[in-house]
């Protein structure tokens, strides 16, 4: 039987609302101010402090991705600079996020065009779910860990001073809009070529022609990273130093790789859905950024394992790349991620975000990874030695939270953290062995494939 909202039922709902005076107070407040701020728990704020028992050597300055979806790049480079700054005795340092962003855009567009051809050859229809999903966002700013490995191993890294940000790296909306339109145009042409049965060589030549236009657009908006660079700097002792005529890949291999080797990291997720058992490897259909590059690969483990390995990494002075759903139970101003930071029942009369289990939120579309950051500290319980709270380096500048750092409670970690990346030396052999097993392929639209970006402006 269906419910029809008759005038009698609507009158009942209205009378029920006005019957409780607390609803009027809540309405007065929430119609004038941010409803989330009205739910903020003063008591909980008094209980939480940004102080931790174990902390890595954090590095300045606090980074800022601004109005772009580069969080995953920032999180990696923030992790990479921790041992780099210590090794070379630097006061502060940033790797060039724009350098990796440029090459990701070029590679990602080429990957999309080739994926369109592959999907068309499968017999997928443009009106079908897979094509519709791919065309929705052909060149997302966001990305996953193995995409970073592809970029760093092929293109290396370089100091930010040698390739600084541009307008479109800090605010990517306009450039992305142009690229998406062209990529959809080229997707139609390629799909037609496959339907007409054109030879593979002709299709490849067309992709090369399309990529000339794509590369030009990206280069105009972002600039082109130099093939070689010279980096001049002062160390902490004010000693002048210089690295001359260095290729970015050479710079990574000679100066960084021994300190932070991206190929030695293991990506673990915690996906509790019954359809995806723990102890298995997973990948996502059509997810990648480089033709011929590494495919995205996850090892699924209980969330307690992710917390344990992250703790070991922090204790060894190595930051942990983190994928989470940043917006749930989040006080942006105070930089606190906590299940009790908002008192929804006192304002709305119902609890929010905890009515479904973590697995059910994934199944029913109420949860997915939206942001990447870097764990830099943990507090362990003095008796159980289990984590109680975490410190996270964000990439939204220093005007939020504790000068840009967030605090994550362990309860929040268990509900809204989905992914961590740790060095393989911390990972038990039985888990490492999963890397040798053919992964289960999840559909392209699966939430485990999503690492979209929450722009800082959404919290201003």
TrEMBL record:
GO terms for cellular component: cytoplasm. SUPFAM superfamilies: Cysteine proteinases. Transmembrane segments: none annotated. This is Bleomycin hydrolase. Its EC number is 3.4.22.40. The active site is at 71, 371, 394. The keyword Zinc does not apply. InterPro entries: Papain-like_cys_pep_sf, Peptidase_C1B. Belongs to the peptidase C1 family. Keywords: Cytoplasm, Hydrolase, Protease, Thiol protease. Signal peptide: none annotated. It is an enzyme of class 3 (hydrolase). One of its GO terms (biological process) is homocysteine catabolic process. It catalyses: Inactivates bleomycin B2 (a cytotoxic glycometallopeptide) by hydrolysis of a carboxyamide bond of beta-aminoalanine, but also shows general aminopeptidase activity. The specificity varies somewhat with source, but amino acid arylamides of Met, Leu and Ala are preferred. One of its GO terms (molecular function) is cysteine-type endopeptidase activity.
